[in-house]
Design a protein that fits this description.
signal; Porin; twelve-stranded antiparallel β-barrel; single chain; about 10% helix; about 60% strand; mainly beta
């Protein structure tokens, strides 16, 4: 039921981003690059290529609508799941605006975020997060930092191919719950051409943690290299995204049972991407 609602929300956000007037034009960008999807506990590296489309649109009332949809194609060596289809997807949609200004350098914003991830080689079949919240941020000409607090809907379904070999049925591979989240973030300019951004975030259901995520992004303004070409105005980006999953909600027996096996033989993955991010002119 909730998965269908999430799909309709994805379509609604896409419609909002595409249906605008010329007075407040959408800012379109594209990403092209390569990646390595790492599952360290299985000594697995899955390389591939990806393409993404990003869009942002600011309304006349200063509300920002933004969205990103990425498609990745893996060079799949069947190290983790022999039945894996080597195409997967990741998307993020955000609506945010200012709630109140605390000072010239500090403000409280409101936001609603919708994140979606599907069919990773690390056995994430489907993941949805729908979280409204507040962002308390501080900024200066060279840095910004803040904390985001949110609460809403969390869903994670594990692909059944690997769990079947460990005695699990498909019916027990979904965790759907309400959850809260806290994120700490910071960004800094390292000279005139390099930016560094990082955040750490946890999702919690009130009884135990669900997921931890750590992200670091290096962006280099490469316009002097790309000037005059199709990638003019672009930047080179290195993204490192490490995710840890709490697999206890999927257990089919007590952890002290002599026959106990966790649903997966790994509980984290790391996604490393190097890509060009450049504006699109329609």
């Amino acid at each position: 039921m909730y998965a269908n609602k999430i799909r309709w929300l994805l379509l609604f956000f896409a419609f909002l981003l595409s249906y605008t007037t010329s007075a407040y034009a959408v800012n379109w960008r594209m990403t092209l690059g390569g990646h390595d999807f790492i599952v360290e506990q299985a000594d697995s590296h899955t390389f591939g290529v990806g393409i993404g489309v990003l869009a942002s649109y600011e309304t006349s009332t200063d509300i920002l609508l933004s969205g990103r949809v990425n498609t990745y194609v893996d060079v799949d060596n069947d190290e983790l799941d022999p039945d894996h289809i080597p195409v997967w997807f990741q998307s993020e949609f955000l609506v945010n605006g200012e709630l109140t200004e605390l000072s010239d350098r500090a403000a409280i914003d409101w936001f609603v975020g919708l994140d979606d991830r599907r069919n990773t080689v690390s056995s994430v079949e489907k993941q949805h997060k729908l979280m409204p919240g507040i962002d308390i941020g501080w900024s200066s000409p060279v840095y910004d930092a803040g904390v985001k607090a949110s609460a809403g809907y969390y869903f994670l379904e594990i692909d059944d191919d690997v769990p079947r070999t460990r005695g699990y049925d498909r019916g027990g591979l979904r965790n759907e719950t309400s959850a809260g989240s806290l994120q700490l973030y910071a960004g800094i300019e390292l000279g005139s051409s390099v930016n560094l951004y990082a955040f750490a975030q946890q999702w919690h259901d009130g009884d135990d943690w669900l997921e931890n995520k750590f992200v670091m992004t290096f962006a280099y303004n490469a316009n002097h290299w790309l000037k005059g070409g199709w990638f003019e105005g672009g930047q080179l980006v290195l993204d490192i995204e490490h995710t840890e999953y709490n697999l206890a909600p999927y257990d089919n027996r007590l952890a002290d049972d002599p026959d106990y096996l966790p649903v997966l033989p790994w509980d984290n993955d790391t996604f490393v991407s190097v890509h060009i991010d450049f504006p699109l002119s329609w």
